[in-house]
Design goal:
Layout: H1 3-17, E1 20-24, H2 30-40, E2 43-46, H3 50-58, E3 62-66, H4 72-88, E4 92-95, H5 103-113, E5 120-124, H6 125-131, E6 138-139, E7 142-143, H7 151-161, E8 164-168, E9 171-175, E10 180-185, H8 196-208, H9 214-232, H10 239-252, H11 255-261, E11 262-264
Parallel strand pairs: 1-2, 1-3, 3-4, 4-5, 5-8
Antiparallel strand pairs: 6-7, 8-9, 9-10, 10-11
Helix pairs in contact: 1-9, 1-11, 2-8, 2-10, 3-4, 6-7, 8-9, 9-10, 9-11
Length: about 270
């Protein structure tokens, strides 16, 4: 099955199953992430309370943990929910926002990695390099590295943790340590909208809820993100209209749109 067909088949499973995707995410992107998941066809639940998050995670299709605003309540909720999800066999997807930039973020990332197996990690190149223990330069949550520069670190990290790692950017590098796919698509306007990286992680969660192979889930999710971004740019006059069109594209995307908006890099 080719990339577009596989990604569309995964998207159809999301739309049919409408999986519950529990998000403990940062305060900046909660609304945008929830709307993107709804447009995609998933059922989002957003929480920051430890007991609530753990109970929801145990009944979810997937759990998404995002450390963008690493306050005490958010971090406690992520750790409690991650433990509950793993006990219930629910896939956990982690977004290490600005990992390595501050001591607090290094501490939180380490705690998340130490709670048990993850299904997937999605971050920018600087975040992936930092998680892998390499020197990385970032400007807040923004990467100062090309995603392909993090490919080797992503493969080592994936092999070490037994999960899928995606270093996203102009090229999305996806690896489980043995397999690797590089995707080209999207649009240069995407980094101008806050939270689209976080949204990508949530979309990965939706696909992980309906796809048994985490590597396939991440490839399909990132293909859908890239295609929606590429198509949304047509007719957009700036970041505001781009985001509105992006949500609409997630809602209406079909196999032809995916084929037009993303491809495997050579």
């Amino acid at each position: 099955m080719n990339l577009a067909a596989a990604a569309y088949a995964g998207l159809c499973r999301v739309r049919e199953a409408q999986p519950l995707v529990v998000n403990i995410t940062n305060n900046v992107v909660t609304n945008a992430t929830a709307n993107a998941l709804l447009a995609l066809g998933a059922s989002p639940a957003m929480t920051h309370h430890s007991a609530d998050a753990a109970e929801l995670a145990a009944m979810a299709g997937a759990l998404v943990c995002n450390m963008g605003t690493p306050g005490e309540e958010n971090v406690a909720a992520m750790l409690a929910a991650a433990r509950a999800a793993r006990e219930a066999g629910v896939p956990v997807v982690f977004d290490p926002v600005a990992a390595g930039v501050t001591a607090r973020r290094r501490e939180v990332a380490g705690a998340m990695l130490g709670t048990g197996p993850l299904a997937a990690i999605r971050g920018n190149a600087s975040e992936i390099l930092a998680l892998a223990g390499e020197d990385a330069v970032a400007k807040g949550a923004d990467s100062r590295h090309d995603s392909r520069a993090a490919a080797d670190a992503a493969a080592r990290l994936a092999a070490m943790l037994g999960c899928v790692v995606c270093a996203s950017g102009a090229v999305d590098v996806i690896t489980d340590g043995a397999r690797r796919v590089d995707l080209v698509g999207g649009h240069a306007m995407m980094p101008r909208v806050t939270g689209l990286g976080c949204t990508a992680t949530a979309v990965v969660g939706a696909f992980a809820a309906v796809e048994a192979d985490p590597f396939a889930a991440v490839v399909q999710a990132m293909a859908v993100m890239s295609a929606a971004g590429f198509l949304a740019a047509a007719g957009a006059t700036g970041p505001g209209s781009f985001f509105t069109r992006f949500i609409d594209m997630l809602y209406s995307l079909d196999e032809a749109g995916i084929a037009a908006g993303v491809r495997e890099a050579s």
